[in-house]
Amino acid sequence: MARAVTQQRKIINTTAAWGIGLLIFFPILWTVLTSFKTEATAIADPPVFLAFDWTLENYSAVMERSNYARFLWNSIIIAGGSTILGIIVAVPAAWSMAFVPSKRTKDILLWMLSTKMLPAVGVLYPIYLICIKLGILDSRGALVVILMLMNLPIIVWMLYTYFKEIPGEILEAARMDGATLKEEILYVLTPMAIPGIASTLLLNFILAWNEAFWTLNLTAANAAPLTAFIASYSSPEGLFFAKLSAASTMAIAPILILGWFSQKQLVSGLTFGAVK
Amino acid sequence: MATKHSRSAARLMMAPAVILLLGWMLVPLIMTLIFSFKRYLPLRGGDLGWVGFENYVRFVSSSAFWPSVAATLTIVGGVLLITVIFGVLLAILLNQPMWGQGVVRILVIAPFFVMPTVSALVWKNMFMDPVNGLLAHLWRFFGAEPISWLSEASLPSIVIIVSWQWLPFATLILLTAIQSLDGEQLEAAEMDGAPPLKRFGYITLPHLSRAITIVILIQTIFLLAIFAEIFVTTGGAFGTRTLTYLIFQRVLESQNVGLGSAGGVYAIILANIVAIFLMRIVGKNLDA
Lengths: 276, 288
What we know:
The complex is a heterodimer. By secondary structure, chain A is mainly alpha-helical. Chain A folds into 2 domains: 58 residues, no CATH class; 166 residues, MetI-like fold (Orthogonal Bundle). Chain A is 72% helix and 0% strand. Chain A is built from 13 helices and no strands. In chain A, α7 crosses α9. The model of chain A has no long low-confidence stretch (mean pLDDT 86). The longest helix of chain B is centred in the N-terminal third of the chain and has 35 residues. Helix content of chain B is 76%, strand content 3%. Chain B contains 13 helices and 2 strands, in the order αββαααααααααααα. Chain B has a domain of 135 residues: MetI-like fold, CATH 1.10.3720.10. Classes of the chains: A mainly alpha, B mainly alpha. At the A-B interface, α1, α4, α5, α6 and α7 of A face α1, α3, α4, α5 and α6 of B.
């Protein structure tokens, strides 16, 4: 009985889901479309959806006007640097917690998580002051370190969850065969851990790329990444919709693509393994 | 023998992460605590000595405090309500058999990957602008007077923008949770003649309760700290000054570090209250 209506229900489900999906996606789609319009078409009433003269002039205008390449480069260095540094610090820690657990492992893990809960604004001035004193305000290095520390708990957690799933017997077997600790890590563990490390890398790169508290408050002309670049469009440039759209599209396109790859890891990563 | 060896090695390997995080937590926290008990105005005399709890009293008795609490609660509450309710509905819908499920899921998740400054500015200008925004076009099409969203309905506007960013997160987590629901149980209930609403209320919703709790806790921690969305849209004007934004203004804009630090301590305490509940759930999960 229930099977008979399946086809009809499937059609209804599909229509509803696609309708809602497109509605949610619409602001992004609209931004991308607008980036190919002229400024006049961008504000046309009634709005034009597809039937306009597609142009790339906004992209060249944004590149020329604002030294876009430097903001992009800053974003890549800050997000990439903080992620790689975080992985380097976190892999040994997560490894030891997963394979040589002690009574305090759980407490250490939870304590690490608790540092992530500290509201950034509560320590804004101390960090700001430390950066001034060290002469690293508005430098990429400072943001690499700060974003690394900010995301370190998530990185350790994600790696720990992945390492936990590697069967310990394999390591024991390697040990029996006389592998040293170094060999064990290098030749046995690392190849098996690479998928987990890759997804951790991906998710944290995304988080660091989109971080918009420290990047807005600790940068000016030198180290500003794309988040700050877009914020500078607040006004009055923001009223040039086509150029705003072109700048926005360039800032989010790489991350959207990476993000779609990482959607599976997103859940366990952001819920600290509480939902899998 | 080998165990002893690996135990000390393990401790050594954990050290960098633990020491770094300990420093990252303690140093700024202690500085904030010290500043909060001082009259400290970097641009007007610097460190002017200890003042006891004066900053703590002044922070809560300033005329901006209670409105900022109200704005924070409105934004956090509004976004939680919207994302959880629509997240549950959307998760149920996406779990049904359909064509192109993978593509729809990608469409729904996409806003989560848009950087906060971009989503705030795109909504502010291209959708909510009272003259050229898409919503203004829509309102005029129906013969209505366009709304100046961010000045006349500032808080609802911020709630809309932030909900759009966080709905994907809630949906994705709830969808993951729903997929672990035992289909046979639902089928059995259906055979026994339980109507859809009852099946939802007695089977699906209880199954989702843990995931919903996690969504609420994690989102609350992130929503309490919302910054960029307000920074680029209203700059804290029109009643959108949240607790986070108020502290930011005290510390960096008016450079009253003592007062701002006292506010910071309040924010840390508030976040910790939420965090305790989250940690309890996550901790339980570790034992399993």
